[in-house]
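URGENT: need a sanity check before tomorrow's submission.

F., can you look over the CN hydrolase domain-containing protein record below? I want to be sure the sequence and structure line up before it goes out.
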Amino acid sequence: RYILDAGGARAAAGQEGEILAWAADVARALRCHVCVGHVRLDARTGEMFNSQTTLDEDGETVVAYDKTHLYFVDEKWAVESKTGFAQTSLSLKVIRTTTKTTTTTTT
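Structure tokens as predicted:
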């Protein structure tokens, strides 16, 4: 169940580094992009954002995005993005696998 109050959001923001480190480990281990939602605390202003960070297969941040339109439960603790909508391009690998069946006939 996803509902945070201001105290819960502030506690979750304290785990942002741990969450992003975990996501980076997963990205590197699986050699894939990982998108993870988290609470982001702006250390300068003290404002909290409902954010999503996308990491590449090397565990490096490709883009971090703060939500522009908040869900009503997020309005209790989060601030809308100051920069508006964002877009980015991802370079994704396409891996195709085939299964070869070998049939051996003995006569």
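My own read: Helices lie at 6-13, 16-30. The mean pLDDT is 86. If you see anything odd, call me.
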